[in-house]
TrEMBL record:
It comes from Paracholeplasma manati. The lineage of its organism: Bacteria, Bacillati, Mycoplasmatota, Mollicutes, Acholeplasmatales. The keyword Nucleotide-binding applies. SUPFAM superfamilies: HD-domain/PDEase-like (SSF109604). This is bis(5'-nucleosyl)-tetraphosphatase (symmetrical). GO terms for molecular function: bis(5'-nucleosyl)-tetraphosphatase (symmetrical) activity. Its EC number is 3.6.1.41. It is an enzyme of class 3 (hydrolase). Keywords: Hydrolase, Iron, Metal-binding, Nucleotide-binding. Residues 13-139 form the HD/PDEase domain. It comes from the Bacteria. CDD domains: HDc (cd00077).
Length: 187
């Protein structure tokens, strides 16, 4: 079974999420053509990044082998779907590629010192063509000119959204934003 077929079957009751995944794949490969990076890893990560999006927290955390990871993200359980998908890709699908693992694991807000492929997945996830929320189109247009600035802007929009909703951004989000605002990045 192809990865697309696997994801389509898993998300058969969530067609909008499946369309989102196809949009992330398309946008990520578009950005790969501009900035480079491993196209196969980018495509794989894009296809699998939201595989566990609609599973329960219990189902998501069963794939996370390190209890410290579960504890670390308990205040932001949205992270579990990403971590679970990364481990599933590695442990079940036998995709033993650190580029794919990192890009899936950190697709929500990236990480300090991330690979190019991870930043591409983060930006593509925020601004794929089906996204209609505030900032998606602006981030997309910027992403074609400056990937790092597009990434920064996507995090700023996300943090603004969380703050407006009375939610506290996770400390990693803030650390990543600070790092990329202060650190020129060569890609």
């Amino acid at each position: 079974m192809s990865l697309i077929a696997l994801v389509q079957e898993k998300l058969k009751h969530h067609p909008n999420r499946f369309n989102h995944i196809l949009g992330v794949k398309e946008r990520a490969l578009e950005l790969q053509k501009i900035y480079g990076g491993n196209a196969a890893a980018i495509e794989t990560a894009a296809i699998l990044h939201d595989l566990f999006k609609y599973d329960s927290i219990t189902e998501q955390t069963q794939w996370i082998k390190d209890d410290n990871e579960v504890i670390k993200y308990q205040s932001v359980p949205v992270a579990y779907h990403a971590i679970a998908a990364a481990y599933y890709a590695k442990d079940v699908l036998n995709i033993d590629d650190p580029i794919v693992f990192e890009a899936i694991y950190y697709h929500i807000w990236g990480k300090v010192g991330m690979r190019l492929e991870t930043m591409i997945i983060c930006v593509a996830d925020f601004c794929e063509k089906n996204r209609t929320f505030h900032g998606a189109k602006t981030v997309y247009e910027l992403s074609k000119k400056d990937l790092q600035q597009a990434f920064i802007l996507s995090l700023e929009y996300t943090i603004e959204y969380l703050n407006e909703g009375g939610l506290t951004p996770f400390y990693e989000q803030l650390d990543v934003l600070k790092y990329y605002k202060e650190t020129p990045w060569n890609y």
